[in-house]
Amino acid sequence: MRITSIGRVAGLSLALALSAGAASATATAEEAASLKTTLMPLGGEKAGNKDGTIPAWTGGLTTATPGFDNGGRRPDPFAADKPLYSITAMNAAEHAAKLPEGVKQMMQRFPNSFRVDVYPSRRTAAAPDHVYENTFRNATRAKIVDSPAGPVPEGAYGGVPFPIPKTGAEAMWNVLLRWRGESWYTEFNGYTLTPEGKRVVVLQARNDHQMPYYAPDGSLEKFNGEHWMVRSINTGPAIRAGEAITGREQLRGDKSQAWVYLTGQRRVRKLPNTCCDTPTPFSAGLVSFDEIEGFTGRLDQFDWKLVGKQEMLIPYNSNRSLVPTKDTDLVGERHLNPDHVRWELHRVWVVEANLKPGQRHTAPRSLYYIDEDSWVLAWGDRWDSKGQLARSVFVVPVAMPDIPAQAAVTWGTYDHISGGAFVNVVMNQQKQQYKVQKRYNDAVFTPDAMAGEGVR
Fold this sequence. Notes:
CATH architecture: Clam
Radius of gyration: 21 Å
CATH class: Mainly Beta
Structural class: mainly beta
Oligomer: single chain
Number of domains: 1
Helix content: 10-25%
């Protein structure tokens, strides 16, 4: 793997970048100052690459496309762009250094249908000023500390916690606490793709989301560690209509809580384990909790190594995935339809996760690829106990200048052993897609509120 230069981050050595320990040091004032000079405010290098295939960051995309209504279909701001080139099984070897192993595996398995269309790279990631300001503060005040739930951030609030990461754990917390808005509402469908090539709807849902960590009128002193809340109500298919799940995520994962409402039992039950490789109820057991949006959950089972930074092809600015009006136009029989997924060349942080001695997990080793600008985890490969590449997680982010953010929408997993897949947050047939909301009342994310919504 060819690792590119980390950039002119003052004092940041590769030796520190390769450290995987839980403890970490905050950035120096000199390092933090680079967030106002050589680095963009969330941590990515401002400069483009040497050959010009990655442009410089000049502020991101912050002007909404004319005619866009909040909650409606986000138009493609780059609809006029044409692919620079396409990668298939026939020419994959020429681009192997910039493709994750899972992408190459998909090309080998489905040589006649899976491809990567590469478009001009556009550095659209952006955030409000208060997020930039808090990220700058976090750089010198946040650190990783050990807890019963593994390494957790301390001293971070309202921005990327570690814009100049020095350990793998710091980079993963940047993923978990990345900016994507404070409160939003989504409607979507989820599909399983069987090894035989059949699409099966396993989920039709409407979700309320909130990140108290990003409340602009909050503060580090008032923050209680509860950083993400979600309420999901199933509207279909018929056998699952009325089911619901509510979760409240804490920085310390052992304090996180989740409840499920099952219509057959007509009561709310607290979920005993919403972590790690436990199968999720909403996916009909097809993905694990730690595969939600690429990675979600606690970090205590693995050692996290920050391998370095690399130029990689990843899904990015893929507003074209929202253009089709039918789910089946985006979701193919074996994988996402390549016609509607935009790939770009970006610098990514590469993080390797290796299972700690004495721990158990279905995927003892993983490699994750994290966009340097937005901290979206765009792709991840996971190996099983036999050393086989078993699964890949993918995220399809879109540009949302109205927030502004580069935010994940559709995500899922490809199972390289069975040949099946799970694709979630497919919004193409929905009138409401990703709607920015005013702050919800805290009571929305409680078991009682969920039971009242889910009863049938």
